[in-house]
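Moderator note: this is an archived Q&A kept for reference. The question asked for a predicted structure of one protein chain; the sequence and the answer are reproduced below.
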Amino acid sequence: MEEFQVCDGDLSDSLLQQYLKAEALAVDTETMGLLPQRDRLCLVQLCDPTGLVCALRIQAGQTAAPNLKQLLESPQTVKVFHFARFDLATLRHHLQIQVNPVFCTKLASKLARTYSPKHGLKDVVLELERVELDKSAQSSDWGNAANLSDEQLKYAANDVRYLLNLRLKLTEMLKREQRWQLAQDCFACLPTIAALDLLQYQNVFEH
């Protein structure tokens, strides 16, 4: 696969320096399930504006990745996720990384694309990028990191490959519809919401 690298445990120093140059960086995670306290983090995918994709394999029991932490906590680089709420909680719980600043394409889609009920990555990419993603590897064993299939790696790469373009197009829509400031305020709340999720608070804003 072009412009695709696999790292084990942490980013290499050279990749860190390359990614730190980016104004925005696409990020995603693959886990063994949807409960961070139960299900371990297996893979972190990154993509910069040049199209350089890295799949970082996280070992069982690993609790730190210093270069990744430096990158994801850098205030100069916007980290772009699809459904950031889950990824932020996962990275915080497993690697003690407090990601900031953040842009969430799913949240942006819900605020901008109010004409559609479909805000999954596949649906948003199909409409805005005219690309149909293959999601067949979505529910698969990511824990066997040393032996990930080509299909899994392709799936992982595609989960970050289009996020930066989506950010640009959704930002344009949000500004056009005068919802850009609202979106920014929502993005700023995401680390706090992720922290509440990890503490298993529910509906704290309801009466």
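Archived answer notes: The chain has one domain: 4-198.
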